[in-house]
Structures are given as structure tokens and as C-alpha cells.
């Protein structure tokens, strides 16, 4: 297996991206090769200066990079030799089986759609985000690929989320919830009410409307919403994790007794940190494109990059796209 990694994408690119690639290659133990896509000279210089092992690493030159604040549509149209554009073209041509990028999310989505196209029967792709929850994890989609959606799009998100939960979380007949402001079918806006009707008639294991608290309660396995709400939810969750960490540190530092207690609680704190740290999950799949695109956090560390690459490997091996095509009645490889 070969996995393309956008070496120029992300707040810490290319240094942490390259470091993460080396860590992933070591963790892969020969199961896959990582193709670093970006400015060859910069990549080779960092590898040499850091004395990184080059086993199972390849480099494909791309002369341009898409900035985090650039307009995705403009960048993809004008920068034909950007690292994300070259990486997705490699995937389209069959040179790699997956693409990983921690760069401009909009550019990654646009490039994937342009190069890979959609799975037959899917109108719009969706970013699937895994949240820690009491049942071992809840998938929320869309996490930000589509700010505006129609009811049919939410129905398709439910189908894709169900397939992903089956194969990635090992859930049998996953329970699907539709994010709204109340549990009753009549609650919500026109979008959620019509989406409720469509998902209820889809044959999926639909639990009906759920509320924000259900994301981490484990009430359902998959929560469906539009990308606007999904991205707000994601950013809010990230801020809560950061704030809780700050409160804990301040509370421990202010009291000698608390510092003593913290030593005893260190294993529990470590477990909580691992559970809530996005770097442990690495990246989020863009479901619905006819290929494998894993989107990482813009601030991805080397650890996050490593885990995003490993997530891409699991996505390919689990055959998630094949299962999605079965659920929507599409065809293709």
C-alpha cells in the first residue's frame, strides 16, 4: 500500500508533517510506503538535518502549496502543482491508495472532488468526526464540508455514517440520530423535519432526533447534521477540552494538597488526556468521495500525522467505500 501525505499542508508544515511521516513509517513496519508530496528540496533538507530514517518513504515534487487562509476554489484553480492537487492526482492515477492532508480543509475537499469524484448515489461528501463517548465513540457528520444542506444530503450522510460505524467501530446495525433541538419529530427547522421523514423511511436503524448531549452520552452510534452545525460543534468541543485542562492545571498548582492528590490521580489524568486528545485519532475521513481522503487538524503534531496515516491504512483495509456503495446501491471498485 502507498499513502500520499501532503507535506506542505498544515500550521506546522513541512517539519512536523515529515516527522510524523517518519514515525508512521516506523509504526507501519513495512505494511505501507508514505509518499511525501511537496517541495523536494525542503523535504530532503529536513530529513537530512534531523537524520530521519528514510525506509518506506518516497518523495514526489510539488512546487506550490495552498495556504491555510487561501480561498479553496481559487487555490485549486490556480495552483495546479500544489501539494494537495498533486497528491489527489496520484490517487486518481492509482499510484497511491489514500491521501492524508492537514492543510486547508476546503482545498482538500475541492481537490478530492475534482480528482476522485463522488461515489455513485452520493451528492455531497461529508467529514466524519469521531467523538469519545460512553459507548466507545460516536461518529458525527458532516463536520464542515457542507455549510448548507438539503434533506436528501442528510439522508446520505446517515447511510455513509452507518457504513463507517459498522466497519470502523465494529457496530452491528448502528443506531442513527438526527441532531435537532428536541426529540420529537416535529422539533427543529424545515431541514431537520424533512430529513427526519427521509431517514425514518430509509431502512436504517434510526433512533430519531437527538440533542447535543447525546453526542457523548453514547445514546446513538452516528449523529447526522449539516456541516455548519457540525463544525460549530467541533470547535466548541475543542475549546471545552482546552478549558478543562486549564482548570485542572490551575487547581493543582494552587494547592499543595491538590498537587499531592494529582500524583495519585496521574493514571486517570493520562487516560482522560488520551481520550480527549485529537492527536490520538489523527484525522477525519471525507466520506462520499470515490477514494480515500483523511483530513487532519490544521495544528497537527507529528503524533497526529502519524495517527492520520494509520487511520488511512485502516480505512483502505476495512473497505469502507465498498460498504458505502453497497448501502447506496452504487457501483464501482
Topology:
Elements: E1 2-6, H1 15-28, E2 33-38, H2 40-49, E3 57-61, H3 72-78, H4 83-92, E4 98-101, H5 105-116, E5 126-127, E6 129-131, E7 138-141, H6 151-168, E8 175-179, H7 190-200, E9 205-210, H8 214-217, E10 222-224, H9 227-253, H10 256-264, H11 266-276, E11 283-287, E12 293-296, H12 302-318, H13 320-328
Helix pairs in contact: 1-12, 3-5, 4-5, 6-7, 6-13
Describe this structure in words.
The chain is an alpha/beta fold and 333 residues long. It folds into 2 domains: 162 residues, Isopropylmalate Dehydrogenase (3-Layer(aba) Sandwich); 159 residues, Isopropylmalate Dehydrogenase (3-Layer(aba) Sandwich). Helices cover 48% and strands 16% of the residues. Strands 3-2-1-4-12-11-5 form a 7-stranded mixed sheet, with helices on both faces. A 5-stranded mixed sheet has the order 6-7-10-8-9, with helices on both faces. The longest helix has 27 residues. The model has no long low-confidence stretch (mean pLDDT 89).
